[in-house]
Amino acid sequence: MQQTLNTTLLIIGGGPGGYVAAIRAGQLGIPTVLVEGQALGGTCLNIGCIPSKALIHVAEQFHQTQLHSQQSNLGIKVSAPSLDIGQSVAWKDGIVDRLTSGVAALLKKHGVKVIHGWAKILDGKSVDVDGQRIQCEHLLLATGSSSVELPMLPLGGAVISSTEALAPKALPKHLTVVGGGYIGLELGIAYRKLGVEVSVVEARERILPTYDSELTAPVAESIKKLGIKLYLKHSVEGFDASSQRLQVRNPDGELLQLDTDQVLVAVGRKPRTQGFNLESLALKMNGAAIAIDERCQTSMRNVWAIGDLSGEPMLAHRAMAQGEMVAEIIAGKTRRFEPTAIAAVCFTDPELVVVGKTPEHVEQEGLDCIVAQFPFAANGRAMTLESKSGFVRVVARRDNHLILGWQAVGVGVSELSTAFAQSLEMGACLEDVAGTIHAHPTLGEAVQEAALRALGHALHL
Ligand SMILES: Cc1cc2nc3c(=O)[nH]c(=O)nc-3n(C[C@H](O)[C@H](O)[C@H](O)COP(=O)(O)OP(=O)(O)OC[C@H]3O[C@@H](n4cnc5c(N)ncnc54)[C@H](O)[C@@H]3O)c2cc1C
Q1: Which residues on neighbouring strands pair with residue 372, listed in sequence order?
Q2: Cys-Cys link to 188, which of 85, 177, 308, 327 (CB 3.0-4.6 A)?
Q3: pLDDT at position 1
Q4: Are 359 and 395 in contact (CB under 8 A)?
């Protein structure tokens, strides 16, 4: 048994929650140890946000070249492209390597001790990593989440999770995605653009069922145009590997056999609470997640939890913000996690952004609000990007015009999420956004125009 290592802060998990907490703690002079069992950067950098966006970029470039090779309105003449998927994956891996090495360098720069290995909890103040005991004053749990598995579709062979889908050795001829949420659709659309025949099976009646149908309609339209087959209100019963057939039940109760050589299970993620003796702490739970208060403190004093482990919304930027806050609290600052809004982005085609309250939310809450939208069909920049579908929508109180929410769907709208989140955090009113000069020609002008429209005087509509 090695000598016990003592530290002030011990973090389990080096994903965006854990590594950001460690960097901030290091900046604040808190002696910090971070334990990571797999790779720094966690799900986000290695098998989530970054690899998926890299693959989406490859797919878009390939798809555009393919379209131009057939018929180009832009006058581009090019012959039909071919794809070396091995090189695409190597390019994606290069980005991941650069980012994860960057995280390692930042941790080193800020004096964080990184231990590679799987942490096993001994008690609320000590952890074992491969025989090394580490003792701390504060234990920060940031173990993230893992893919939900379906009992009738065990992973293995042709049945894969997003992790395998992000590192294909070869592309299947036909991929069936089980789950029409954002991960399933981002990957399904990317595979389709890479030339794969794609089907999506979703138990609910719409794709992206957590967003309203007005917002998801342009995505549904684009999926149809891309030739992705949608099986809505269908439930999966199993996969027969020998015949390569997925059995699904249609809304009439009939069993269908879908031919497919790969099945991607993308039905959600669950907090990672198993396998490291977490249960010994008997922490209060919030469903499958660890219950936390507004300071990310668990039911045990000086045991903190952040990120996906603490439940929805399971997003990297929430994990990072929580991590930064916990480090500051441990350093003695007074902080609470009370964001006005956390942006949720689907990097589908077109992209979709939701920040703050939607028309549905305000209706449920009985708030008297103005809802206004401005279509990209009337935005010059959208036209120059060959995209006219989608809109920006604003939700504001009728009495004082305080903006409560923004939603947008359209090409490149993920970048508008910053303006949306800032306007909400700063308590902007419709007049603030309408009165800000927005650069021309930009998609952002649709944001200003939505605010103007809510005030009754949009200029370009
Ligand atoms: C395909 C995909 C695409 C996504 N795209 C987006 C996106 O575009 N935007 C977005 O905001 N979010 C996205 N997400 C979600 C995002 O990845 C997560 O919300 C985020 O990574 C959560 O961060 P975290 O720090 O809580 O946990 P994780 O990133 O899951 O990190 C947890 C880390 O803890 C380690 N660990 C666990 N247990 C132990 C232990 N006992 N000992 C040592 N180490 C341990 C794990 O190895 C892991 O590295 C995506 C996820 C997936 C799967």
Answers
A1: 394
A2: 177
A3: 59
A4: yes
Q: What is the mean pLDDT of residues 211-223?
A: 96
Q: What is the pLDDT of residues 77-133, one digit of tens each?
A: 999 999 999 999 999 999 999 999 999 999 999 999 999 999 999 999 999 999 999
Cα–Cα distance between 279 and 174 in angstroms, integer? Answer: 41
pLDDT of the residue at 2 = 74
Tokens read off for 309: 């482990």
**Distance in angstroms (rounded) separating the CA atoms of residues 17 and 25:** 12
Atom 19 of ligand 1: nearest residue by CA position: 315
Q: Averaged over 301-313, what is the pLDDT?
A: 98
State which of 23, 33, 44 you would mutate to test the pocket of ligand 1, scoring each by most atoms of that ligand within 8 A of its C-beta: 44
List the 403-410 sheet strands across, edge first. 344-346, 351-356, 403-410, 391-397, 369-375
Question: How many CA atoms, within 13 angstroms, populate the side-chain half-sphere of residue 333?
Answer: 14
CA distances from 342 to 59, 140, 167 (A): 28, 22, 29
Mutate to test the pocket of ligand 1, among 143, 324, 417 (most ligand atoms within 8 A of CB): 143
Pocket (CB within 6 angstroms of ligand 1): 12-18, 35-38, 42-44, 48-49, 52, 118-119, 142-145, 162, 183, 272, 276, 307-309, 314-317, 319, 347
- From the centroid of its chain, how far is CA 354? 12
Question: Separation of 414 CA from ligand 1 center, angstroms?
Answer: 20
Which amino acid appears at position 264 of this protein?
L
177-194: average pLDDT? 98
Please state, in angstroms and rounded to a whole number, the distance separating the CA atoms of residues 10 and 113. 10
Q: Report the distance separating Cα 31 and Cα 13, nearest Å.
A: 16
Q: Output the six-digit token pair for 438.
A: 């927005």
* β pairing state of 126-129 and 132-141: antiparallel
